[in-house]
Amino acid sequence: MNKEENNNLNLYIVILTCFINGSLASGMVPVLNLVLGERSATAFSAYFVGSVLGLSLIYFSKFLRTLKHGLVIYQSAFALSFVLMALRLDSYGLHIGRFLEGLSGGLLLPLAFGWICRNSPYEKLGTRASALNTAFALGFVAGPAFVELGIENFTLQKVVLYLTLPVLCTLVFLTRIDSETDEPNRVEHYSGTFYEWWDRFYYLIFAKLVYGFIIAYLTSYATHIVPDYSLRSILLGIVGLFIVGQILAHLLKNVLESHLVLANLLLAMSFYALYLFFWKITVPNFIVFVVFQSIIVFVAYKKLAVSPNSSRAFALYNALTDPGLILGSLLASFGDIGFLGIAFAGTLATLVFLIRSARHFRAEAEYPPFGIFAIAKMLRKQKILNRDIEPSLHTKNLSFHWSSPAQDQKKKIRLAFSGDFATVSRVPSLDDGINTLLASCDYRFLNLEGPYASEKSSGFLNKWNVFGISREQFHSATKKGQYNILNLVNNHILDKGRKAVDQTLDFIKQNNLHAITSSASFLKHEGISLGFLGLSFECNMFVLNHPQITRIRPHEFMQKTKLAEMFLEKIRDTKKQCDFLILSYHWGFESEFAPSTVQQQCARLFFSEGVDLIYGHHSHIVQPFEVMDGKLVLYSCGNFAMEEKKREYLEGVIFIAEYGISDFLNLQKVETHSLCYSEGRISLMPSQESLAFQFWKKTLPFALAKDTRDYPFVELPKPVES
After folding, report:
1. What is the sign, positive or negative, of the torsion defined by CA atoms of 593, 598, 603, 606?
2. How many helices and strands (H and E) does the chain possess?
3. Which of 368, 352, 362 is nearest to 385 (CA)?
4. I want to staple 321 with a disulfide (CB 3.0 to 4.6 A). Which of 80, 204, 479, 603 is the partner?
5. Quick one: three-class SS letters along 25-38?
6. Taking CA 21 as the corner, what is the angle to CA 90 and CA 307, rounded to the nearest 5 degrees?
7. 357 phi/psi in degrees, rounded to 5
8. What is the mean pLDDT of the chain?
C-alpha cells in the first residue's frame, strides 16, 4: 500500500470514528429518557459540559495535544464511560458517565481534525474538514434510533455495555494512526472586535443550539407529537430529513454561503420557531423545522471549515460554539417554551446585524444575490472606514516608493495607473501638473467604474445606486495626452445592462482608446508585445452576464475552483502570445487601507502563472503596492473621481511604473503622486498630507518617499473622524 492509499484509509478510519462517537453521544438519549424521564435534559447537558472542558484542555495544554497515541488513549476513556454507566444505571452514574463521555470526546475530536490538517492538500482540506463535521453530526442524529432497536431486545444495562463494542473496534484501527506531532501553536490568541467574533462563531452556535434542542426535545416529547410511532421510527425519520437538508444545502451552497443570506435564514428560522410555539406543532411543521436546521448546520460548518488549521484551533472554535448545544438541550427541558428561546436567539443575530456598519463586515466577500438586508448593507456602505490590518498580512515589502539599484537601460516605457472613475455630478477637470505627469507616460490606465451609456441605452435594472459615465465626463479623462487604456471589468459595469457594455466598448473603439475586458487584448510598443486581461470579484447586477466580463473572487483561486482554474489557463495561454502581461483585477474590500492576506497570496499565484503586473482597484482607498521578485502588484489606486463626504474617498493616486526595455521589461522604479478631488477639480497634493500615507507611516517608515515638490494651493476637506 503506497502512502496516498494509506492516508486515504486512515482518513476513512478517522471519519468513521467521528460518526461512531457522534452516534453514541446521542445514542444514550433513549436510555436517559427511560431512566430519568423529563430530567434527561440535564444529563444530556452533562455531555456537552464535559466536551467543552475537553476542548479547552486541548487548547491550553500542549502535552495533551501532542500525547503519544493520544487518539487511542482518549478513545479508550470514551469506551470506559459506557462501562461506568452500565455498572451504575441511575441518576448519579448517568450524569458522571455522560460527563466523562463528553470529556474524552472533546479531547479526541481536535486530534482527529489535526491529523486531517497535516495529511490533506490545501484544495481538499475544506471538503475533508466538512466531512469530519458532517459525519459527527449525522451520527449524532442517527444514534438514538440504533439504541432504540437494542432496547427492544436487551436490558438497558446490556445495551449500554454493548455500546462499547463499536468503540473498541475503532480502537483497533486507531492504533494505525500516530497522533503525536510537533504541531506549532498556530492560535496563540484570537483577537478581533466583538463583531468579528460574532461573524466567526455565532452562526455555528445557533446551528448547534437548534441541533441540541431538536434531539433533546424529541427524546422527551416525540411520542406526544406522533403517538402512533415509536421513538426509533421518529429518530430514523429525523436522520432521513437531516440527509435531505444536507443535500439541498450542497446543491444551493453557492447561494447559501453568503453572510447576508445566512442572516436571512436565521431570521426565517426565528419566525418559524414562533409559528411552532403559537400554533400546534404538527408533523409537517416539524419536518420543515428539521430540514431548515440541517441546512443551517451545513452552511455554518462550511463557513468555518478551513478557518481552523490545527487541532488547537479546532478545539478553540468548538469550545466557543458547543455551549450552543448545552443551551439547546436546556431549552428543550422547558418543552414548547423552548421554541421562544430559538426565536430569540435567531432574532438577536438580526438585531446585531442591523447595528453593524461597513467596517464590521466585508460586503464584497458576502454580497447577497437576494435578501431583505441588502438595502441595509448598501445604506451603510462606505460610512465607516476599516483601519485594521490582518495579523497574517506580510507588510515587510509593502511600499509607496520603490527603485531598483540598476537603472542602465536607455529605452524605457512608463505606465501610469489611477483608480476608480465613478459617477460624479460635475465634469471633472485635471490641473496642469497632472496633465504633465500623464503626458510623460506611454500608457495611462483608468478604471471606468460604470458604463458609458447615453439616454438611448438600455434602462436601469434598478434606479438606485447605479453608476454611469456621461459623454462629457468620459471625454474629460480621455482627451489627448490623458488616459488611453480603460478597464471595464468591475462590479458596476453591468449596472445599465448588457447593451450598455457593448455601447461602451464601441465608444472606446471609436475614440481610438484601448479597453481591458476579460477577453485577451494586445498592444505593440518598441517591439514588445503587451497583453491585457481583466477580472472582477463580482458584478452588482448578478442576474446578468456578459461574454467579456469574468467574475471570480480571490479566495476561489486558493480553493482551486473549476472557474478559477479555467481563468488561470487563460492567463497561461495569453502569456504565450505576449512579452508582458498586465492583469487588471477589481478586487479586495471597500473602505480598507490594507490589502487582505488572500490578495497577497493571489498575487503570488498570478505571478507564478505568467502575469507580470497586477493593476488593482475597488477599495476606493489608496493602498501601498508590493514588488515580488521584480513584479509589481498595485493593490488599490484609490479613487480618481468620486463624490463622498469622507476625505479618504476624495483622495487618489497616480502610480507610475517605469520599465527598462531590453529583451524583456525590467522594473526600474515606481513613483507615487497623490491626488485629491475637490469641487469638480482633480489636483496633485503632497503625499505627506494623504490620509493613506498618514495611516501607514508607523508601519512602513522606510517605504514612504519624502515629497518636496511645490503644489498649487488646494483647500482640502477636513478629515471626518471614524
Report:
1. negative
2. 25, 17
3. 362
4. 204
5. HHHCHHHHHHHHHH
6. 130
7. -120, 180
8. 79
Per residue, the 3-state secondary structure of 133-158, as one string, reads HHHHHHHHHHHHHHHHHHHCCCCHHH
In the Cβ-directed half-sphere of 335, how many Cα atoms lie within 13 Å? Answer: 5
Contact status, residue 136 vs residue 15, Cβ threshold 8 Å:
no
* Strand partners for 641: 421
Q: Which CATH number fits domain 398-696: 3.40.50, 3.30.70, 3.40.1350, 3.60.21?
A: 3.60.21
CA geometry: angle 61, 64, 66, nearest 5 deg: 105
Instruction: Identify the CATH class of 3-181+201-355.
Output: mainly alpha
Please report, for residues 103, 367, 408, 518, the alpha-carbon distance to residue 547 in angstroms, rounded to integers and kept in the order given: 56, 22, 43, 8
Give the confidence band of 109 by pLDDT, cuts at 50, 70, 90: confident
Q: 362 Cβ partners below 8 Å, 6+ apart?
A: 589, 590
Task: Give the bridge partners for 402, in sequence order.
Answer: 670
φ, ψ of residue 497 to 5 degrees: the values are 95, 175
Phi–psi pair at 287, nearest 5 degrees: -60, -45
Alpha helices in 252-337 (DSSP H): 253-256, 259-278, 283-304, 311-321, 323-332
User: What is the per-residue pLDDT for 444?
Assistant: 94
pLDDT of amino acid 454 = 55
Element (H, E) at 58: helix 40-60
Q: Please, are residues 290 and 241 in contact by the beta-carbon 8 Å criterion?
A: yes
pLDDT band with cut points at 50, 70 and 90 for residue 159: confident
Distance of alpha carbon 545 from alpha carbon 533, whole angstroms: 17
pLDDT digits 0-9 by tens, 36-66 = 876 777 887 788 889 889 988 988 888 888 8
Start-to-end CA distance of the chain, whole Å, equals 60
What is the distance between the alpha carbons of residues 312 and 184, in angstroms, rounded to a whole number? 9
**C-beta of residue 326 within 8 angstroms of C-beta of residue 316:** no
Average pLDDT for 578-597: 91
Distance CA(373)–CA(669), nearest Å, equals 46
> Once rounded to an integer, what is the mean pLDDT over residues 106-129?
73
CA dihedral over 9, 15, 21, 27, signed as positive or negative: negative
**Helix (H/G/I), strand (E/B), else coil: 201:** helix
Domains of the chain: which residue ranges?
Answer: 3-181+201-355, 398-696
**Single-letter amino acid code for the residue at 653:** V
What is the distance between the alpha carbons of residues 475 and 512, in angstroms, rounded to a whole number? 12
All cell numbers assigned to 436: 504633465
